[in-house]
Structures are given as C-alpha cells and as structure tokens.
Design a protein that fits this description.
globular, acyltransferase, disordered N terminus, alpha+beta, Aminopeptidase
Length: 197
Amino acid sequence: MDPSPFPRLTGSADVSVRPARPEDAGDIARVQAVAWRTAYRSLLPVELLDTWDEDAAARTWRAAVEAAPTPAHRVLVALEGNTVVGFTAVGPAELTDGEVADPAAPTSDISTLLVEPRWGRRGHGSRLLAAVVDVARSQGVLRLRTWLPDSDEVSASFYESAGWEPDGWARTLDTGDEPLRELRWHTLLDGDEGDPA
C-alpha cells in the first residue's frame, strides 16, 4: 500500500499511527481479542469470546493487509514505542437495505476501531480517528460512518466528542445469543469544520 496520503501518521517517538504491515496481523488479532473480551463481554456471546481463534483472526487480518479488496480499504495501527496498541479498518461504504447511495457525498465506513484497554486514555483512539480522516480526505470521501452497539456508551461518547452523531439508521444483528442492536453514527468532512480529529 502506498503510505503517501498519511500526512498526520507521524507522532512523537513514543506514539504514532501508520499503515498496517503483514507482520502486524498477530498483534491486531491480539488487540481485538483483548478489547472484545474486556470491553464487550456484556455485549457479545460468551461462547464467541471464549472460543476466539486468535490464529484464524491473524490470518484474516494478514489477508486484509496484503490483499485488500479495493485500494480504498485500509488497516491502520496505533503504536506506543514498537508495540501495536490499537487498530482501525476503513473502506468504501456498504449500503444498508433500503438505502440509496448519494453520489454527491462519497462515503467510507469504519468497520472497527479498537484500542487495547490497558493502553486506553492515551490518545491512541483519537490518533487513529484523525488518521482515518486523512485517508478519507485523500480519497475524496466527504462522509464517514460507523456502527456502534446501542448500549456502548463509551464508544458513543468518544465519537460524539469528535463531532459525530447518529444518522437515524439502526440494525439488529443475530449473534446466536441475545440480538445486538446497533446505531449508525456519521460525520461530514467539510474542510476543518466537522473534522472529527
């Protein structure tokens, strides 16, 4: 992947964000497992969390980095020192049933943005979100979206503090346990105004 559209992906010597590399796949899977088991234990089925196959997840993330479905799909990692402490994945928006694409507002979806809980509250989530904004703008994207569990007040507060808001769409996922209701959040990238960074 060409890392050129990442003007803000620098940082201090201790913290930074950069495009993911294939060798990061194991760390990405670890962060995902720890974050889900810690922050989402009450939202996701216990069986899913307890039988999580970290090796399979690592293979999936390696494939996402090495052979992205489109050039617009990106995986970014947050670093503290040389340690991967968080990651995000972004790509072209997928239409929800009944939704019509707006050609005047190219849109991308953040499919996940996670920081390992022990590295939380150090700005890694904000740096990842700012990097996504830079990537989106470099691709001509005018709107970003993400789905959040309805009961995930921590993530909702994070996105709200960055200028995001629910856009009125909701969905219910069959998790094999209790249904998981999610709300879609969005922000417009309109110059510096509305910049969630």
